[in-house]
Structure formats: C-alpha cells, structure tokens
Amino acid sequence: MDKDDRDDVVRFWERLGLPGIIDVHTHFMPERVLSKVWAYFDSAGPLTGMEWPITYRQDEDERLALLRSFGVLRFTSMLYPHKAGMAAWLNDWAAGFAARVPDCLHTATFFPEEGVDRYVRQAVEAGARVFKSHLQVGAYDANDPLLEPVWGLLAEAGIPVVTHCGSGPAPGKYTGPEPIGRLLSRHPRLRLVVAHMGMPEYAEFLALAAAYPEVRLDTTMAFTDFTEEFTPFPADRLGRLADLGDRILLGTDFPNIPYPYAHQLHTLERLGLGDDWLRAVCHGNASALFA
C-alpha cells in the first residue's frame, strides 16, 4: 500500500509542476505521548465517538521516510498539552526534533498557565516557526487573560499559530468562531491558521478569514470522504474558498488519518477550483508564509 500511495502522491504534484508539497499539519511528538493519542483514537474516545483506524502507525523513522518519499518538502510537529505543566517540556522535545529533522518546521505550543509568556518567548528566541493551539483538547479559552501577552508576542513576531478552534468532531466549551472573533478583534495581525477549515463552522471561519487578511485555514481532513459523511463542506461556499485561494494551506493530520495520504490531495483536486489554486494550496502559500 505504501508504494502505491507514494506513487499516487508524487504523480499529483508532478502533474502540477511543483517541486513537492508542504504540509502544515502533521504530528510528531514524544513516543509515549503519541502512543496515548493512538490509544484514544483506538478507543473511539468522546472527542471522536467513531471508529478511527490510523493508517500510518509506523515508528518515527519510518514515518519520516514515508513523508519524504511522498515529496513533502516541509512539515510540522504539531503537539499540544491537555493540562498545565506539559507545554514547556513538549517545546523542549520539539526543539530537539527540529534540530535533528531539518525539514520539519520548528513547532511549539502553549497552555494558559503561570509562566506561559516566558516559555513562549524562549521558544520564539530558540527559532520556533509555528505554534499549535488546541482549544478542544486543552479545553481553554483563547481569550484567557494569561494568554494575552502570548498572542501579542506571536502577532508581533508574525509567527503562525495553527489553532484547532472549530467544534468538530465534537464541540468543546471554548470552540467555535465567536471566541476567535473576539481574539482577532484585539490582535488583527495575528497569523492564525484555522485547522480543519474550522469544521463544522466552515462558513463562519471563512468569513473571519475574509475580514482579517492574516487569517488562514488548513485543509486537514476537510473534503475527504471520511469527513463529508458527518460534516460536509457547504457547496455554496466554494466561491469563497476560491476567492481565498491565497490563504488556504495544505494540512493532512498525518499520521493519524483513517485513509491514505493521497486521498486528501485528490479531494482538493475534485473541488474543481483549478490547477493554480492547487499549486498555491499545496505549495505556494505555505512557502510564502514560512519564507
């Protein structure tokens, strides 16, 4: 399966005349943390509530080799805390990972806790290129006063923050477009990347992107057969998706996806928005953002 999958991915970007693709939403984390994440998916936990087979359950070296064989030029190590006291040591791990895996964009994270502004600044000074904020798993408010200096710092530094803020696959206490709208009203220059296209509030997050020029959305799991069964993308928003083509970024959720990697790419292709749109989404937009 891996060889067929690899050939399928390579044919996709070669047809578009690209040198490869950039994936802004991939997961690498300490093995004991990743094992717990996989166990959660295996148990159909309450945030998923459905069967979720993980397609790429290989060890770290194999997963890295697989991404590179796909032609993924740059990727991320999305990781996130679910409680206080985790983020700083996750950042230490991620810094080490980025040092030994140079094609991974140095990723960091945070949690609303005492000292968060200190360790976020340390991560920025250490070269972090992208942050991950998971409002659903972390169960925190983006508008928590403890995070105010963090958002200000990241907005000033121009560092993107990939944020799971939509209410899919299950709503959280602080998910949805309303709290993010309040955040952006205070930090309009924040380079917020809305994970999963903001599903299921696709229309609302597209509207926020239209209102704030630095807001972007990643495609992670959106449009796939798996997701369309329970959270279909509204057909009447395809025009808005085309208009925002310079701010849509390829994301996949590799390795925690219940289908082959190539499927995410082909679902973008079947939207029918054209090759120029695909080139921007799969390479150009992320290349410019992280230049």
Automatic annotation (TrEMBL):
Entry keywords, A to Z: Lyase
Say if the entry is tagged with keyword Cytoplasm: no
Q: Where along the sequence do coiled-coil regions lie?
A: none
Q: Which residues form the Amidohydrolase-related domain?
A: 22-290
The family database entries (InterPro entries) matched by this protein are listed as: ACMSD, Amidohydro-rel, Metal_Hydrolase
Task: Extract the PANTHER family matched here.
Answer: 2-AMINO-3-CARBOXYLMUCONATE-6-SEMIALDEHYDE DECARBOXYLASE (PTHR21240), ISO-OROTATE DECARBOXYLASE (EUROFUNG) (PTHR21240:SF28)
Record's protein name: Amidohydrolase
Q: Which organism is it from?
A: Streptomyces halstedii
